[in-house]
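Need C-alpha cells for this chain, all 307 residues.
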Amino acid sequence: MNASEDVREPLKRRRNGAASRHVGFTGRMMLPGIVPLAALTVLPFLTIVVMSFSDVRLLGGMRLDFAGLKNWGRFFTDPDMGWFWLRTAGYFALTLGLEMVLGVVLALCVWRLVRGRNLVLSLLLLPMFVAPVIVGLLGRFLTDPTFGLYTWLLERIGYDGDLLGDTFTAFAAVVAMDVWEWTPLIALITLAGLSAVPPTLREAAALDGAGRWQTLRHIVLPSISNVLLVALLIRAMDAIRYFDIIWVTTNGGPANATKIVPVRLYETAFRFFDFGYAAVVGLAMLFASIVVARLFVRMLDRKGLAR
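Here are the C-alpha cells for all 307 residues:
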C-alpha cells in the first residue's frame, strides 16, 4: 500500500461512517410513518394472501383452515369469471374512452369562450362533486319506468321499454352515469393543460396559414399530450375498481349484464361470506391494477414525467 492509499482509506471509512449515520437517522425519523403504514397495508395484504389458501369459517369466531390451491383452482375454472373480466374490460374501455373524448371536447369549447367562462366551468364541474351513490340514486330515479324523466322522454320518440330492466340498456345506462359524473374531471385537467399552451405557437401557426383543425392537430394536442396522459392514468385507476353506481342502480343485473369484477367480489365476500374465494378475486384485481398502472407509468417515464 503506497502513501496515497494510506491517506484515502481513512477518508473512505469516514465517508461511509457518515453515510451510515445519515441513513440511520433518516430511518429513525421515518419509523413513525413506516410502522403505521405497514400495519395498515402490509399486514392486511399478507392476511388476504393467507385467506386465499384457506377456508374461512366464521361460526364460533373466525378460523382459517388450510385449503391448498382449492380457491385458486375455482378461480381459473369458474365459467362465469371470464365473462365478468370481459365485461369489466368493456366497461373500463367505454367509460375511459367516452370521458376522454367528451372531456377534451368540452375543455376546448370552454377554452374558446370569451365571456362567461367561469360560470360555464362552475356549472360543468357540478357532477364531479356529487357522491357516486347519489349519482346512482339519481340515475335510478330518472330512469324509473313509471315516473322517470328519461323514460318519459324516450317514450316520446317511441321507446317504451325498461331502461334498467334490459341487459343492453342497463349496461349503457350505468356507463352513461359514470361518464356524466367524471367527464368534468377530464375537462378540468385538459383545460389546465390548454391554458399552458404558449399563445406564440398558435400565432405562428396562424401566420403560416394553418387552419383551426391543423392548429388543433399539430400544435394544441401535442402540447397537452402529457396532461392527457396523466388524466388518463387518474381515471383508469378509478374505473378499474368502480362499484358504487352499479351496485345502487342494478345490483349487477339484469341477468349479470352489469356485473363487473368489483361487484362479483363484493357479492362473494359479503353476500355469500366466501372469504377465501373473495381473497383470490381481490388479489387478481390487485394484479390487474398493478399491470395497468405499470403500463401508464412506463408511458410517463418515456416522456420524462415519472422522475
